[in-house]
Design brief:
The complex is a heterodimer of chains A (360) and B (508). Helix content of chain A is 73%, strand content 1%. By secondary structure, chain A is mainly α. Chain A has 2 domains: 73 residues, no CATH class; 251 residues, ABC transporter involved in vitamin B12 uptake, BtuC. In chain A, helix 4 packs parallel to helix 6 and helix 8 runs antiparallel to helix 13. The radius of gyration of chain A is 21 Å and the shape is globular. The relative contact order of chain B is 0.11. Chain B is α/β, with parallel strands linked by helices and 508 residues long. Chain B has 3 domains: 233 residues, P-loop containing nucleotide triphosphate hydrolases (Rossmann fold, 3-Layer(aba) Sandwich), CATH 3.40.50.300; 178 residues, Rossmann fold; 78 residues, no CATH class. Chain B contains 17 helices and 24 strands. The chains are: A mainly alpha (360), B alpha/beta (508). The interface between A and B is medium-sized, with 25 and 33 residues. Bound molecules: adenosine-5'-triphosphate and magnesium ion. The site of magnesium ion (MG) has 6 residues of chain B, from helix 1.
Chain lengths: 360, 508
């Protein structure tokens, strides 16, 4: 038990848990103010999250977590290499559209691999969308935050336009459904009966493991992080920092694009509509919280993503009670955003532990 | 006794190391009190405790006889304590004036009001001969001026206990003389000064008393006048240090590096930073480029190592034209570079010690296969260098580089660059911030390179170093080589004349 202050897993874990607890505290307060009679049952429902609905609930948590883990990875991977990819939203939208387009139009593909190709297309499209701010940052030193926010809007309207001219179904006023390329379920629905689960979650976990290996075990990751921490030292060491900057953006974009694909190649997902607001694609922005909650560590991001999925499903079950949907959204948002505080608590916990150990 | 500062029984523990072990340290009013100790002895830590940046596990601090608890730097400032840190803490894109008032900004009608502040700053600046340009941006000014800004910050806040953590490590000899004058002035006004330095002659020149730390303990506090330099260094290191290095006769080989008509554009002014410079470095020689800081040394080194573009001229290394080659190619071909700024170029502070030790070689067979890092080899490699170069830190190979003491960070870079077994070692201020024992070791390493038929290009502001270890000296002034001299025959005065630009000869 000595040297707790050096045990990273303990520190990071407890920091995340602490910030989550504070989030719950706050959302309880919100409920207390807005809807006192239901505040207690509301809180327990939220705390119970995905467990409210038994196996169905758990299945839905994993299903919801898939795209969230992927956008979290997108943001977290970029963070680790010193970049702030706020453009995950745009890359998500582009990836989603590409997946749906391939799913709807490329019917010449054999059914078995149709979804694979569609996902791959989403992966590549997201990466390409991130390449633009990546190149601008690397070769022109344009701040990636600004350029990727612009890319978010361009992406949104471009996709609206593309839907209209390629895969629009005027009778339903929405995009055609990529039914032929839906992600396989592989009998998971037998375990998680009545849930929307598919392989998306497992693809996300696989990606997180790959990201972890790249960052922590390879020379490529060593270079990427060196550029992120200190670009001058990287250049001094002969590392091609320009190449690494855009590569890192592209990898990040690939994850975000894949998230879009996983999200929209599911039978029960939202229909692809003409949407005017970026915020109607919240996954990209949630990615920022997930990355922060998971402290940018890919493995941490898996857990953070599951947690956010859990809370969202909890919010879903809150609809059982006469609580305004806006309040539910508010509570979920409060928890998600406060969870980002884990960064702050980490330093505090190390400090307290050290003091404690020094006393002994 | 009227001590202004008393630190009694101070203990500060970091993971894996007791940085301060029951240290006693007392400063009298109006004295200059030096703090001496090897790299990692705990000097900066002790001062950070006094300044409220670290919290001691044990011990008491008294200011003017009253016990105080200094939880944070604001309390320290209220007690009149100011500090110039080993690595400056200035806001790089602010002006000098903005930096000086930062934290105590004068506000009028809800807006920043700098007029009176400017007057006050200029007055202090004049009074103490601290020349600054109030409207210059920090990142554009020399290190020397940045330091004057740090000093002004303390004086502006009317602090009367002033901590200087290795202020002279980054200064030119002329600036050091100036700084010592300023310190004497301040002390004569009744301010108390704590002065950390590794240079014993500086302690001899200005300090009244000196406290010696070794491995976290306070060994002694002695009067400077009655203690010799040799005694000081012995107390500090625990053994005798040889100040004059023995060099074997030179065995000069073929030229390894040839620079011809080199021109490098400056990004600060419209003139050339390096203006038609030519010289040769031979195997088996230590060639020193001497000069006052800011005369193009930095640009010359960047051009030689590939960090900056060459406008015209050629660089030939081992018979090959490398003028436009990449940094990596040059490094693999056997050029090592100990950079001037250890935090900017030399280290990735967020990496561990072991990771920093492979910064130039991580891609080699020894450390990776198929793109996967070999962690066992990386750790073993680090352990070997830590032992060989006596790099001290709390957690060995796994220490975060950021937490290491300044001198040990420097040793990390030197170890890495020498371990590459370079044919040409470009060393810029290699011993900056090192203690006398470490300097002795590093100098011997440089000489070993030369004796093994390798070449060393040394860029140093330290006249002692230049005179003692180089075989040949070329002097750079305003981007041009203005003279070549033999260290065995040249006098410091003559060298000074060349460096100041008042004497020049044609060198080919
Ligand atoms: N924040 C920190 N975390 C962990 N260890 C630390 C930290 N700061 C200092 N140390 C360790 O404490 C020891 C003393 O460091 P300190 O910086 O006080 O040395 P110093 O005497 O100033 O040396 P130098 O002459 O090299 O500047 C070193 O071994 C260093 O690794
Ligand atoms: Mg120090």
């Amino acid at each position: 038990m000595k040297n707790l202050s050096k045990n990273k897993a303990v520190i990071n874990g407890s920091a995340s848990v602490l910030s989550i607890l504070i989030g719950f505290g706050f959302s309880f307060l919100v409920l207390l103010i807005s809807n006192a009679p239901y505040s207690f049952v509301g809180l327990t429902t939220l705390l119970l999250g995905g467990f409210n609905g038994g196996m169905q609930g758990i299945g839905n948590v994993l299903y919801t977590a898939g795209p969230i883990i992927l956008t979290g990875l997108a943001v977290g991977f970029a963070f680790k290499t010193g970049l702030f990819n706020i453009g995950a939203t745009g890359q998500f939208i582009i990836g989603a559209f590409t997946a749906v387009y391939v799913g709807v139009r490329w019917t010449f593909l054999p059914v078995e691999i149709h979804w694979v190709v569609a996902l791959l297309a989403a992966f590549i499209a997201g990466g390409l969308w991130a390449l633009i701010p990546g190149i601008l940052k690397a070769y022109r030193n344009v701040n990636e935050v600004i350029s990727s926010i612009i890319m978010n809007y361009i992406g949104l309207y471009l996709v609206n336009y593309m839907i209209k001219i390629t895969i629009f179904d005027p009778t339903k006023n929405q995009a055609l459904m990529p039914t032929r390329a839906y992600l396989p379920v592989y009998g998971l629905d037998k375990i998680f009966t009545n849930s929307s689960i598919n392989v998306g979650f497992f693809i996300a976990v696989l990606m997180a493991i790959i990201a972890y290996i790249i960052l922590e075990k390879t020379t490529f990751g060593y270079e990427l992080k060196a550029c992120g921490f200190n670009r001058f030292a990287a250049e001094y060491a002969g590392i091609n920092s320009k190449r690494n900057i855009w590569l890192s953006m592209v990898i990040s974009g690939c994850f975000a694009g894949l998230a879009g694909g996983v999200m929209y190649l599911a039978g029960s997902a939202r229909y692809f509509e003409i949407i005017d607001l970026l915020l109607q694609y919240p996954e990209g922005f949630t990615g920022i919280s997930v990355a922060l909650l998971g402290l940018s560590n890919p493995i941490g991001i898996i857990f953070a993503g599951i947690f956010i999925g859990y809370i969202k499903i909890g919010g879903f079950y809150l609809q059982w009670y006469p609580i305004m949907p806006e309040i539910v959204d508010l509570m979920v948002a409060v928890i998600i955003y406060l969870s980002a505080l884990s960064f702050f608590f980490r330093a505090k916990i190390v400090y307290v532990l050290r003091k404690f150990e020094a006393k002994k | 006794m009227d001590y202004v500062i008393e630190m009694l029984n101070i203990t500060k523990i970091f993971p894996g190391i007791v940085a301060n072990d029951k240290i006693n340290f007392q400063v009298k009013k109006g004295e200059i009190h030096a703090l001496l100790g090897e790299n990692g002895a705990g000097k900066s830590t002790l001062m950070s405790v006094l300044f409220g940046l670290y919290h001691a596990e044990e011990g008491t601090i008294k200011v003017e006889g009253k016990e105080v608890k200094i939880h944070n730097p604001n309390i320290a400032k209220d007690l009149g304590i100011g500090m110039v840190h080993q690595h400056f803490k200035l806001v790089h894109n602010f002006t000098v004036l903005e930096n000086v008032v930062l934290g105590v900004e004068p506000i009028k009608n809800g807006q920043l009001y700098l007029k009176d502040a400017r007057a006050k700053v200029l007055e202090i600046s004049k009074k103490y001969n601290l020349y600054i340009e109030p409207d210059a941006i920090i990142q554009d000014i020399t290190v020397g001026m940045q330091q004057r800004v740090e000093i002004l910050k303390m004086l502006y806040r009317e602090n009367n206990i002033l901590i200087f953590d290795e202020p002279t490590a980054v200064l030119t000899p002329q600036e050091i003389v100036e700084l010592m004058k300023i310190m004497r002035n301040l002390a004569s006004e009744g301010k108390s000064i704590i002065f950390i330095t590794h240079k014993l002659n500086e302690i001899k020149a200005v300090a009244n008393r000196v406290t010696i730390l070794r491995k976290g303990r306070s060994i002694a506090t002695v009067d400077v006048k009655s203690t010799s330099v040799e005694e000081l260094s012995e107390m500090m290191v625990g053994r005798k240090v040889i100040f004059n290095i023995e060099k074997q006769a030179q065995n000069l080989g073929k030229p390894i590096l040839e620079v011809k008509d080199l021109v490098v554009k400056s990004n600060r002014h419209h003139k050339n930073a390096i203006n038609h410079v030519g010289f040769k470095v031979h195997r088996g020689e230590i060639l020193c480029v001497a000069g006052i800081e800011g005369n193009g040394q930095t640009d010359l080194v960047y051009a030689l190592t590939g960090l900056t573009k060459v406008e015209s001229g050629t660089i030939t290394y081992k018979g090959k034209d490398i003028t436009h080659q990449k940094v990596r190619t040059r490094s693999i071909d056997g050029i090592s570079h100990i950079p001037e700024d250890r935090h900017k170029h030399g280290l990735v502070l967020d990496y561990t010690l072991a990771e920093n030790l492979i910064l130039q070689t991580y891609f080699k067979e020894e450390f990776q296969s198929h793109g996967f890092l070999k962690f066992d080899n990386i750790t073993n490699h680090a352990d070997a260098l830590i032992k060989q170069f006596d790099i001290r830190s709390g957690e060995g190979a796994e220490s975060s580089t950021r937490s290491m003491s300044g001198g040990n960070q420097q040793k990390t870079i030197i170890a890495r660059e020498i371990d590459k077994d370079p044919d040409l070692l470009i060393a810029v201020q290699p011993t900056r911030g090192l203690d006398v024992g470490a300097i002795e070791y590093i100098h011997n390493q440089l000489i070993k390179q030369r004796d093994n038929g390798k070449a060393v290009l040394l860029i140093s502001l330290e006249l002692n170093e230049v005179m003692n270890i180089s075989d040949r000296i070329i002097v750079i002034y305003e981007g041009e080589i203005v003279g070549e001299v033999d260290p065995k025959t040249v006098t410091e005065q003559e060298l000074g004349l060349y460096m100041a630009g008042s004497k020049r000869e044609n060198v080919s």
